[in-house]
Design a protein that fits this description.
Blueprint (H helix, E strand, L loop, with lengths): L16 E6 L4 H12 L6 E5 L2 E4 L2 E2 L6 H13 L4 E5 L2 H5 L2 H4 L4 E4 L7 H4 L2 H13 L6 E5 L5 H7 L5 E7 L11 E9 L2 E8 L9 E4 L4 H16 L4 H10 L8 E3 L4 E5 L4 H14 L4 E5 L10 H7 L5 E4 L9 H9 L8 E3 L3 H10 L6 E5 L6 E4 L2 E4 L2 H11 L6
Parallel strand pairs: 1-5, 1-6, 2-5, 6-7, 7-8, 8-9, 13-17, 14-15, 14-17, 15-16
Antiparallel strand pairs: 2-3, 3-4, 9-10, 10-11, 12-13, 18-19
Helix pairs in contact: 1-8, 1-9, 8-9, 10-11, 11-12, 13-14
């Protein structure tokens, strides 16, 4: 079904052990957790994500192309590295990346609606993600979210000789599916997330408790996946857990700015991600919860009403522009509003900076404003032209003007 658009890997590729992460949400965070844990085995570790390429914590100035990927891998090898943790998008997998550069361990985070403009159907989207696991070698490992409905489908296509390890949040798990690493409780605060774990004999000696600097149950799942994959790669459970606990939040992943009111910048741009981000914010919000978000233009139009439905978890909703590209921002906002019919407290401000100012200027010390959709991005695509724009910079500027201490 899938032919590769990539050349065969160079001979030296076998000298790097590559662990790949795919799924709809949580790929970047899981890859960051995984790279941190792998550094307890050997350094440096190459980390390649949508945020950029890094050698340990050093950014690599390489293009976001396959040639740039190879350059980063070669740099890692030349500096004595033996491990790489990479984020794999459905588009790259659909083009045959996993066949061109096989991973020894594959990690699956979850599967919810996204990128159907590129794939045409949910089935093609799933089949693209599955390519990572189809091409795992004998002796490799598949680390799967056993609490996700796609897990049984992925298990059907995993080759013989590949070990399958399931992790997940017990509260989200169907009763008939056993987990090797189960999250039995999650507690969140502004200091981070505290997790209680239970394991099967397949993953012995893992710690019972794990603390994260990131906030939210999704990150608990991401951390559990990374912990399992790192231990399967040879990391000490104690060392891997400590490295994961110490890792700071990646840019734009529930990134907290300010101490009252608080702004939370998050990359959530799918209905599931937005719903879970708002749930995480609600758990630590003592006042009013506001969300500022839009949807990307020239992308999956069918998810826009569902994005509106997901936003119902907030008390106040301000619809704005995301990356409208060549679509009319007002038309995008109108499509999102289809999922918000009959709901009070919804407004539209298509100027994103003005929307952020409006949300924060009207917030009290106990309130939280979630600014969703763009996360780590440093520009905004309007009419096909990219211009500098950073949610964090706008939020900091507004809070500074209000005299709010910045976190």
């Amino acid at each position: 079904m899938y032919s590769t658009c990539f050349p065969p890997p160079p001979d030296w590729s076998t000298r790097l052990r590559t662990l790949g992460v795919t799924g709809t949400n949580g790929k970047t965070s899981t890859t960051a957790f995984l790279a941190a844990a792998l550094r307890t085995i050997a350094r440096p570790v190459l980390r390649n994500t949508t945020v950029g390429a890094f050698l340990d914590d050093e950014p690599l100035d390489v293009p976001a192309t396959y040639d740039g990927f190879l350059e980063g891998m070669r740099t890692c090898l030349d500096r004595g590295g033996t491990f790489a943790a990479i984020e794999l998008t459905s588009e790259a997998l659909a083009l045959g990346f996993a066949k061109a550069w096989p991973c020894s361990i594959g990690v699956f985070t979850n599967l919810t609606r996204d990128h159907l403009d590129a794939h045409g159907s949910f089935e093609h989207y799933l089949a693209s993600k599955a390519q990572l696991f189809v091409h795992l070698p004998a002796g490799g490992c598949a680390v799967l979210n056993g609490a996700d409905p796609a897990c049984p489908l992925l298990e059907e296509i995993i080759p013989p000789g590949v070990r399958v390890v399931r992790y997940g949040n017990a509260a989200r798990m169907p009763a008939d599916r056993a987990l090797d690493l189960s999250i039995t409780s999650v507690r969140t605060s502004w200091e981070g997330t505290s997790i209680t774990l239970a394991t099967s004999s397949a993953l012995a000696n893992l710690p019972e408790h794990l603390s994260l600097r990131l906030i939210g149950d999704l990150y608990a799942e991401n951390a559990a996946a990374a912990l399992a994959a790192a231990v399967l790669a040879g990391a000490s459970p104690e060392d891997a857990a400590r490295a994961i606990s110490e890792m700071p939040a990646p840019p734009g992943r529930f990134e907290v700015i300010g101490k009252g009111p608080r702004a939370v910048v998050d990359y959530a741009h799918t209905p599931d991600a937005l719903s879970r981000t708002l749930a995480a914010a609600r758990a630590v919000c003592a006042g009013t919860l506001t969300v500022v978000f839009g949807a990307g233009g020239n992308r999956d139009q069918g998810k826009r009403a569902a994005m509106g439905q997901a936003a119902r978890g907030a008390d106040r909703i301000i619809l704005t522009s995301d990356n409208p590209r060549c679509e009319d921002p007002a038309a995008i906002a109108a499509a999102i509003q289809q999922g918000l019919q009959g709901l009070q407290g919804v407004s539209v401000e298509l100027d994103r900076a003005a929307a952020i100012r409006e949300a924060l200027s009207g917030a009290s010390a106990d309130d939280v404003v979630v600014i969703a959709g763009k996360g780590h991005e440093k520009d905004q695509d309007v009419g096909g032209v990219k211009r500098p724009f950073c949610d964090q910079d706008v939020a900091r500027g507004v809070l500074r003007g209000l005299g709010v201490a910045l976190s």
